[in-house]
């Protein structure tokens, strides 16, 4: 059985906002973040040394993203307790909508164990292509103009995408 191919993903955990413990009081102890890209792939930040309700890390986590992955998981921990989690669809930062090696800035609502809102996590994500050198994403199709959208400017280096991903449709 052949091993599934994968891409390298760079997730920079920038910060979180409005984190609460027990739905009432702000976080007062050190907070860290774990990002999971598959059953056995994960990376974690260090703890925010100031232990505040709006922690900042700005830490880059580099790991493999299996080609068949449909989402990544982000968990915010206060000590050993998960206080918030988010599931991020891979299509929000990779696939047919964005060329490989684009940097996407995304923010997601965190949800507590009981389904309550518990803050927001801010990330940047870049997918670096297949490990075997095959750039399978939209690299082959991004040079063709889509309805109403000009092709990418070849003079731009390391494009940056910000905001919420949207679908491009012709009207």
From TrEMBL:
CDD domains: C2_SRC2_like. Residues 1-112 form the C2 domain. Gene3D superfamilies: C2 domain. SMART domains: C2. GO terms for biological process: defense response. Pfam families: C2. This is C2 domain-containing protein. It comes from Perilla frutescens var. hirtella. The lineage of its organism: Eukaryota, Viridiplantae, Streptophyta, Embryophyta, Tracheophyta.
